[in-house]
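Ticket #4471: structure export looks truncated?
Reporter: QA, pipeline team
Priority: medium

Steps to reproduce: submit the single chain below to the structure queue and open the exported record.
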Amino acid sequence: MDRIRAFVLFFIFFATFLSCEKPEIPIDNTPLDLIVDKYVHSGLSPFFYILIKDRNGNIIYDYSAVNQDILPGETVDKNTLIRIWSMSKIVTITLIMDLIEDKILNLDEPVIKYIPEFKKLTVATNKEGTSLSMVDSMSKVCLYQEIPMNNDMTLRHLINHEAGFYYATTQNKCINQVIADKKLPRAYDSDDLINKISELPLIQQPGESHFYGTNTTVLGLVAERATGKSLKSLIKDRVTNLLGINGLKYNIDPDEKLLPQITGIDTILRVANDGELDIFGPEFPSYDFKNKVYLGGEGMVATADGYSDFLRIFINNGSLNGSRFLKSESIDEITSPHSQLDNKWGYNGYNLWVTSDTLRKSGWGDEGLWQGGGYEGTQFWIDSKREFVGVVMTQSNMLQKEAHGFYNDFRGELYKQIFDYEKK
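Actual output as written to the record:
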C-alpha cells in the first residue's frame, strides 16, 4: 500500500513538474517566409537572413532570401559574416559591466582619469552659449562658437549617450564636416583615435541630454586604457573564448570576405559608391586583419549564429555554455530604465531599447522586448518572457520608404502567432 501511495505521489509530482515547464511555441513558417520573400524579391532589400533561438541554442526559426539581381550568386546563412555596426555597442557594454564587476572600472569615475587628452575638450554652442544639442534650430547655427567643457564627463555619461559625442549625421552641417574631416575610422591606432577625437568639439556639455553618437566607442577606449589591452583582446578573452562563441569579432581573416555595401539612396537598390554610407563622413571602418583601431560602438562583424549566441547570455542570467560572464544583477542594470523615460515606445537601458505596450497595441510585437540595431539594417530582439532571441541580418542603407516596414511586419506576424497560441 505504501508503494502504491508513493507511486501516486511521484506521478502527481512529475505531472506537476511537466505542467510548469514552458511549452514550445509552435511557429507556422509559411507566412513568415512569405513576408521575407516579399521584401527581398520586390527589390526592397538585397537579402534577409532571420535566426531565432531559444535559451539553449535550439533553432526555433531560420530563413534566408537573397535578391540575385543585386547579389548574383550569393548565399547567406547563419555563418555569413555581416557588418553589425551599432549592434557592437551592447557587446562593449557587457564588457564594461564585466570590468565593473571586477572592480577595474566604476561608472561614476571621470573619463579623464583614463583619457587625460580630453581635459581640453570644448563644446559647440550658438552665440548665446547654448549647446548645439539644446538649440531648437541646430541646423541654423553655422558657424558655431566653442566654449570650454565645464561639466565633469563620467563613464555613466558615456554608457547613457549623454557625454556629447556624435556622428557626422547631425542636423548641423558644420559640425558634421568637422568630424568627417578627422577621418576617425582611419586612425592608425587607439592613441591616434583619441588624439583625433580630442580635437573635436562636443555637441553638448556632459549630462545635458541624451544624444546618440560615438560615446560607446570612447567607452571602449576607456576599457583599453584601464586594462592595457586592446578591445579586440578584451572581447576575445573575456567574452567569446570564455563563453565558446564563434562568429563575433573584430577584423576578418585574409581568406574571409564581407558582402558589398548596398544603398537605396536613388530609390532603387544598388552597390554603394565610396562615401555614400556617411555616418563618419566619407570614411568607412576597416575590417582588414591588420587593422588596429577597434570601434566599440560600430566596428564588429558577426554571423547570425555567433551574435544570437551572445544574446543568449541575457536569458541565461549572464551565463552561456556552462561559463558565467555577468552576474544577473548586471543584466538587470543593463535592461533597467536609464534614459528617454518619457518616450511612448519604451525606454533606454544601457543602449538597449525596452519596448512599451505601444508595440503590442500597434500589432508589431510585445511589451518588454529588449532590442537594438545597426547602421546597415541589422536588428535583434530578446524576449525574456518567452526566453528566445531573434537576429535579423541584412546589409543595406538609405532604404526606400516601403522597405522600412519589414521588421514590424515580420515580428507582427510572429507575435500574432504567439498571442494566438497563448490564448488557447
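Status: closed, not a bug. The export was complete when the record was re-opened. Leaving a note from the reviewer for reference: The two ends are 39 Å apart (CA to CA).
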